[in-house]
Design brief:
Elements lengths: L2 E9 L3 E4 H7 L4 H8 L3 E4 L6 H10 L4 H6 E7 L10 H9 L6 E5 L5 H15 L4 E10 L12 E11 L4 E3 L4 E4 L5 E2 L8 E2 L1 H23 L8 E4 L4 H9 L7 H13 L2 H4 L8 H12 L8 E8 L3 E9 L9 H9 L2 E2 L2 H9 L9 E2 L9 E7 L2 E6 L3
Parallel strand pairs: 2-15, 4-5, 4-6, 12-13
Antiparallel strand pairs: 1-7, 1-8, 2-3, 6-7, 8-14, 9-14, 10-11, 13-14, 16-17, 17-18
Bound molecules: 3-hydroxy-3-methylglutaryl-coenzyme A (HMG).
The site of 3-hydroxy-3-methylglutaryl-coenzyme A has 30 residues, from helix 2, helix 7, helix 8 and strand 13.
EC number: 2.3.3.10
GO molecular function, one term: hydroxymethylglutaryl-CoA synthase activity
Protein name: Hydroxymethylglutaryl-CoA synthase
């Protein structure tokens, strides 16, 4: 039985910051951000968007009435969830109006959460071929104003419908995963900003990639020439390129050229959004599928997932016949073209805004947020959400 990605949705908040303007205000050469790091724009979430609403908005575009009945498992990958107890999946389940006979859970392992969710979903569908699983990857990446991680922030979510006989990509069975306890990036429960050892994190990202890639080749007998494209977790777009460069020489000249061209396509969306942590790899896949026209059914895509702390996995998928017809290209182009640029001071103000932590009531102005699903405020220590379409 083929199991894999049937639909792939995406959402980013409607505000963004131009990286050259951030560079100017931080007295940094803009080329460092746009070339050295490889980011052009950074999505900035207003107070009315959090991990729950970003994910629910991403899911809204893909989930139809039939899916709502068939989905019996919602798996929410996030490292910036809104509650230490209740899962973000339960909120999304309600906001979308899904079948109540469903499981809804949250999974966490830094940027690896959504990949864990996809692999769990695959096992679930193997046992229950008629069911569908909604896997969400949603995060707001925050390092702090004037930090070296600032240029690698971002916000957004992906929503993946995992099913039997998928329309976009069938997941292959063999994958290699690896865990090792390292402190390259972490966020203690008392902090709303992440801590990172930038240099160590870059080294470990590459070391984990080399490890799982070598194991994968030894286990499967596959080689670089068997791949049409490689997608990477993209904390910033230069990072995946550094990993790809370490293996490129193994391919023929034609394969090298193709992988490089497809790598570029796989980074276009991420360049304009920034790091969305657990959704980043799937935003990269979306960017590849929606930008490239030289891929065809049967092409094998390599997927490298990395979540600091750390867990890495290399797995693969085969593109399905007619996959292009199941993408939401126009909606995504519209989403990007309708965003509003904000100034650095506006971004700094939004960055410092917080919700009350003393149980007081606050009502947020959702009229300024074009998203269908918004956070409307807080009351009695409870987040209040609205689906404007309901
Ligand atoms: P930094 O110290 O600001 O930058 O940190 P740098 O000095 O290392 O420079 C960055 C690049 O810009 C270098 O290129 C420079 O040469 C180049 P590289 O040597 O790396 O190829 N550069 C220029 N290029 C053109 N023109 C110029 C110029 N100046 C310099 N004028 C760092 C950068 C990414 C480390 C920092 O932003 C950071 O700490 N970010 C957060 C951590 C991170 O993203 N780590 C990535 C791997 S870990 C991961 O992916 C997991 C993660 O997503 C979290 C999770 O799993 O949940 C982060």
């Amino acid at each position: 039985m083929k199991i894999g990605i049937d639909k792939l949705g995406f959402y980013a908040p409607h505000l963004y910051l131009d990286m050259t303007k951030l560079a100017d205000s931080r007295n940094v050469d803009p080329d460092k951000f746009t070339i050295g790091i490889g980011q052009d724009k950074m999505a900035v979430p207003p107070m009315t968007q959090d991990a729950v609403t970003l994910a629910a908005n991403a899911a809204l575009e893909i989930v139809d009435e039939t899916d709502k009945e068939a989905i019996d498992f919602v798996i929410f990958g996030t490292e910036t969830g809104v509650d230490s107890s209740k899962s973000a999946a339960v909120y999304v389940h309600e906001l979308l109006g899904l079948n109540p006979y469903a499981r809804a859970i949250e999974v966490k392992q830094a940027c690896y959460g959504a990949t864990a969710g996809i692999q769990m979903a695959k096992g679930h569908i193997m046992m229950n071929p008629d069911s569908k699983v909604l896997v969400l990857g949603s995060d707001i990446a925050r390092y702090g104003l004037n930090t070296s991680g600032e240029a690698t922030q971002g916000a957004g979510a992906v929503a993946l419908l995992i099913s039997a006989d998928p329309h976009i990509m069938a997941l292959e069975d063999q994958s290699v995963y690896f865990t090792s306890d390292i402190m390259d990036f972490w966020r203690p429960v008392y902090s709303d900003k992440a801590f990172a050892d930038g240099k160590l994190s870059n080294e470990q990202y590459i070391a984990f990639f080399s490890n799982v890639w070598e194991q994968y080749k030894a286990k499967t007998g596959m080689e670089l020439n068997d791949f049409a494209a490689m997608c990477y977790h993209l904390p910033y777009t230069k990072m995946g390129y550094k990993a790809l460069k370490t293996i490129l020489d193994d391919g023929t000249d034609d394969v090298q050229e193709r992988l490089l061209a497809n790598y570029k396509q796989s980074t276009e969306y991420n360049r304009d959004v920034g790091n969305i942590y657990t959704g980043s790899l799937y935003l990269s896949l979306l960017s590849l599928l929606e930008q490239t026209d030289d891929l065809k059914a049967g092409d094998r895509i390599g997927m490298y997932s990395y979540g600091s702390g750390a867990v890495g996995e290399f797995f693969t998928g085969l593109l399905q016949p007619g996959y292009q017809e199941h993408l939401y290209v126009e909606q995504h182009h519209r989403l990007f073209s309708s965003r509003t640029e904000i100034t650095v001071p506006e971004y700094e103000t939004i960055f410092e805004e917080t919700l009350p932590t003393d149980g007081s009531t606050v009502e947020l102005d959702i009229d300024r947020d074009p998203a269908d699903i918004c956070l409307t405020g807080m009351a009695d220590d409870k987040r209040q959400y609205v689906n404007k379409l309901k």
